[in-house]
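User: For a benchmark we're assembling, each entry needs the component sequences followed by a predicted structure for the full assembly. Here are entry 17's components. Please fill in the structure.
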Amino acid sequence: MARMNLQGFIGSSRKHPLSVTMGDAERRRWISIAALSVACGVFVAYFLWLQLRRYEQLGAYAFDLGIFQQAVWLMAHGETPFVTVRGMNILGDHFTPILYLLAIPYRFWAHPFWLFLAQTVALAAGALPLYRMALRHTGKEWAATTIAIGYLLHPALFTMLLFDFHPVLLSVPFVLWAMEAADEGRPVQFAIASVFAMSCKQEVALAIASLGAYMAFIRKKRWAWWGVAGGILWMAVALKLMPLLSGAERSAYLAFYSRWGETPLGILWGILSRPLEALKELVFCQGHATAPGVYPLLLLVPFAFFPLLAPEVLLFGLPNYALIALSERVIFRELGYQYASTLLPWLAVASVLGWKRLLRVGDELPERLRRRWQVFVALTWFVCAAFSAYRYGPPVIQRFMSDMLPTKEAKAIVDFLNRHIPPDASVSAPTSLIPPLAHRKRVYLFPNPFQQVAFGPSVEALRQQIEMRAKPLPEQEFHQRMRDQNVDFIVLKARTSFWPLGADAYDTLAIHALTSPDYGIVAVYKDLLILKRGSNFAEGLKRVGINPNIPKENLRKEIQSVWERLQGLGW
Amino acid sequence: MRWRSVQLNAAVLFVGGVLAGVLIAAIRTLLPQWTKLAILPYSLPMLILEGLIVVHIAFWLRPLTKVHWAAGGLILGLMAQIASLFPYDIHTLLPYHWSALVTVPAAIIGMALGET
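Assistant: Structure for entry 17:
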């Protein structure tokens, strides 16, 4: 190297052949790193911009942005992360201690920018260990760069960024780093990366245990048994801690596998004792709207089916795939959700080995044909990645951005909320208004806490998230609960996402809230109403054009007609 | 050595099938109007275009394979047919139709042309 630099510096006209080769290699390396850096930079800039736009235009939701905003905000202020949006300790919902790292910048500036930045940079950063591994296996810079860029173009990867925030996305670079370190035989780095990865969600521990098993069985590394033990231990401890923190008997998420068993071991036994049934589910893997067999293809097509050329890697990724395929929750098997984040590292690494094997079989071809073969492999990879990114990505992005309001209107709403609701007040609001109100001790997703829906650690709460069939309480009972619960403000919006309720239930409960004499309307902005506890009820009625002297029996009808009028107000 | 040759043939036909399949799937999804206008499930221009894609790929790949051109063409055509069932969108697969069989003769023709 010194010789090459010296010669380069002197500018000798008679270059040593070795120095020329090294110079070329060096240049190729720098070009490939620069190309990858540009790709990562564009990826981060574009998706960060989209996420911020979605947040600022009120297109984000309480689940799962509001939840994590409140959790990290509480952590940043030294509080127990009991998230009132979800009705439980955040670490009891999913074991995600990595959130404490995000609390550091949040302490200085409480804004979901940090959450978006972290998950976007994390997914982009996954390209770096992948590049290193690909370079080591293929020995070709262009191949390593092509593989890493193909990873960034995988639609399951980038569409996850548009669905609010999920700490499990932060695990992707750490799992890839752990895989790269294990592949290179660096156990200390493997251990460090594994600990960070497992801190992102309890089921990542399964990926680490599987990775350890792969290294132990296939690569015959004895130290990898520590990875197996560590992964299993972490998972066991997390599954014990979560119910303790949430106050439930066991994690409600196990109910998604009740068809196979009740406890983790029972579920495992249920799967092993019904292998044909399990195999059918694994192959067809039907989603909410996805036809049978499509989801596995959506994972494989962007990588040109190359992962199939490394079946021994995919085999060890199977436990994480089974968590998705064998779950009762069909939405697990749709693009755009975070669940694929535990699968992508396996697919990416299997692709690297697939590439290696494809390039290796071409070694016996003459030079000219070998070049043709390499171009052909790269072209296939690139066309599959580009086609998938173009075809499968945009519809998912569009879906997640469909609830966005025009910029000016969204800003006016946020200003209106900030003007009337003090930062330390407790508030209950619909899902799309939770993110701008989330940085406080008590913020609830309407109709919580008056009627508990999708609230708390119960299985029923999880089912309510999916089914949206909660029946509204009778008016008198709802009023009584409004009296009992000390919530300062209620925000109601006539035209908004009514999740986790059905449309009719949302309207009924909104009208219940408006007829409660314990709250008065203090501010109105288009279809948005702010109710304050203890405020003058009669004065509030005047604000929406209702005569307060109206007979009590006609009041509900009158309020209902006002609500319907507000629903007719478009942006 | 013989095993390496088998591996090479399998790899070339596998990757060739995937490339042909994804290009056909891309054309079918990006130009749906071509199929809608047709009386048949796939329009004639679409069939010709799909056939031409496979002919070119087979022709280009022929020097890389060591199997008989007819066998290579048959396998490549079948691989392309399977791969062209790529998901039409995020929810559904492309519908299969016998007209997709155009890929087999096209692959054989391409391999035969590459042989000469």
